[in-house]
Amino acid sequence: MIRTASQLLLAAVLALPAAAAAQATRAEDLRYPPLPRFDIPQPERVVLDNGMVVMLLEDHELPLVEATALIRGGSRLDPADKAGLASLGAGVMRTGGTQSMASDALDDYLESRAAAIEVRAQDDHLQAALSALKADFPAVLRVFADVLRRPAFDARKLEVARNQAIAEVARQNDEPGQLLAREFKKVVYGPDSPYGRTETFASLGKIRRDDLVAWHRETFHPDRIILGLAGDFQRDEALRQIREAFGDWPQGPAWKAPDVPYRKQPSPGVWFARKDDVTQSFIMMGHLAGLRSDPDFYALEVLNQLFSGSFASRLVNDVRTRKGLAYGVQGQLDSGYDHPGMAWIFVSTKTQTTGASIDALLEEARNLTAQPPTDEEVAKAKQSLLSSFVFNYDTRREVLARQLTLEYFGYPLDWLSRYRTAVEGVTTDQVRAAARRLRPEDFAIVVVGPAQGTDKPLTTYGKVTPIDLAPPAPAPGKK
Question: Could you list the residue range(s) of the whole structural domain that residue 411 is in?
């Protein structure tokens, strides 16, 4: 019998001596046995003659098969004046049907088989997904290949997708948390960077069907695709089906990794988005961070855990529990795969405690070096990270999803297997050194909230730049 990671961990907990468990009267007195060995399954990697990478991970627990394709592209490659191209293109690839199956027929075909095909765009990649019953998988895979290779880009479906995107732009300032995250990215990466760029009525209005056709012709080639298969299949038969569906697709031009611009230098200061229809202030502060390939990545993982990873972390304990300032508080130094992530701290608070909350976040950031992490904090953070790690990958589908990402960005496929040993080896000195990555003197501070009622003027923290939240101009032809 194959035992899942969660079953192994439960068995370890149940194996604790009853007497030892009874003696613990406080949470901090609990002692845990060493974590059981946890082996992460490794998918088989096969490269087709046309350069398509296929990764296979069998799982016979349920009669289902799921396929995920990562395609080199993404919204960061959109022309500046046509932001939204990849997002519209990906959506209409699915909704617009194929050259051999109209959109309504495709919907009916999938619905009758309880199957699903989806295509969507992220900043740094495109993703297509398939889900089907084992018996239907061969036929649905052929349709999936047709969607990727020969989309029809029905003009009527493009207009539906465009109208949906326009409606989202019209509502883009409604939710303060989303507004805050969007404007913070603009400040940190720069408003002209694709990582800070947003869709507009004007950019969406410029996109035509011919643009989608040209985007697909330039982007979709088999040697730019990593296809992962997880579920109830037999290896040889699945490879035969994949070769039948994709094997005659010719290679495209050699892929060149994009050089995506972003602001390299910090931009300290304060940015304020006036939103008088809320009674809270939403605050985010920080700067650029680093990459997962950086030598101190694992020390940063431990640092993030002790800083904000639990109810006992520094941010939650001090800002929310002890000072009572926060409805929600969180922060971490995010590491990107192929471009720097963001170091950020977030809090939502009463308007009347806006200044006190900013002071509290700045204090916590400074205390990471002024009151550096202790041996006990580091030990607890490592234990918490390692205890939760197995639950992140306790299904083969989760494992394959992460392995596809590692393959896409060129990381070694044993990266996950290294994680536990690497975290166990992190020292307190390494965590303290990593804490110096957070630089309060370089913080950009973005605030969304009412203009009146704050306990301190925002000018206390530097020059204030207003963020224009005026309703965007109507789209061409829209009222």
Answer: 269-466
> How far is it, in rounded angstroms, from Cα 340 to Cα 345?
16
Provide the whole-model pTM: 0.89
Using DSSP, state whether 27 is helix, strand or coil.
helix
Distances from the Cα of 191 to the Cαs of 107, 125, 267, 399, 434, in angstroms?
39, 20, 12, 35, 28
In this structure, the dihedral spanned by the alpha carbons of residues 142, 146, 148 and 152, taken in order and rounded to 10 degrees, is -160
Strand partners, 282: 348, 448
pLDDT digits (tens, 9 = 90+) for 234-286: 999 999 999 999 999 999 999 998 899 999 999 999 999 999 999 999 999 99
Q: How many residues does the chain have?
A: 479
> What integer best gives the mean pLDDT of the chain?
91
> With pLDDT > 90 as the criterion, what percentage of the chain qualifies?
84
Locate the DSSP E strands across 253-378. 269-274, 280-288, 290-291, 328-333, 335-336, 342-350
Dihedral sign, Cα of residue 288, residue 289, residue 290, residue 294: positive
| Helix, strand, or coil (residue 336) | strand
Q: Read off the amino acid at residue 254.
A: A
Residue 371 carries which DSSP code?
S
Sheet strands (E) in 2-81: 44-47, 53-58, 64-71
| Residue 60 DSSP code | -
Assess if residue 121 is contained within a domain.
Answer: yes
Residues 221, 314, single domain; the answer is no
pLDDT of residue 476: 52
- What counts of helices (H) and strands (E) characterise the chain? 17, 14
C-alpha atoms less than 13 angstroms from C-alpha of 284 in its C-beta half-sphere:
22
* Residue 420 · residue 38 · CB < 8 Å: yes
User: For residues 351 and 211, what is the distance between their CA atoms, to the nearest angstrom?
Assistant: 46
Q: Are the C-beta atoms of residues 165 and 199 closer than 8 Å to each other?
A: yes
- What total of structural domains would you count in the chain? 2
> Same structural domain for residues 339 and 386?
yes
- Which two three-digit tokens encode residue 63? 């009669």
- Structure confidence at residue 310 (pLDDT): 86
Contacts of 54 (CB under 8 A, 6+ apart): 45, 46, 47, 48, 226, 227, 228, 229, 239, 242
Q: How far is CA 429 from CA 5, 378, 423, 439, in A?
A: 31, 10, 13, 18
Instruction: Indicate whether 65 and 193 sit together in one domain.
Output: yes
Query: For residues 184 and 93, what is the distance between their CA atoms, to the nearest angstrom?
Result: 31
Per-residue DSSP letter, 152: -
On whether both 240 and 276 belong to a single domain, the answer is no
Q: Kind and range of the H or E element at 388?
A: helix 375-392
Q: Specify whether 225 is located in the same domain as 273.
A: no
Residue 209 in tokens: 């069907």
**CATH number for the domain including 77?**
3.30.830.10
447: helix, strand or coil: strand
Beta bridge partner(s), residue 225? 71
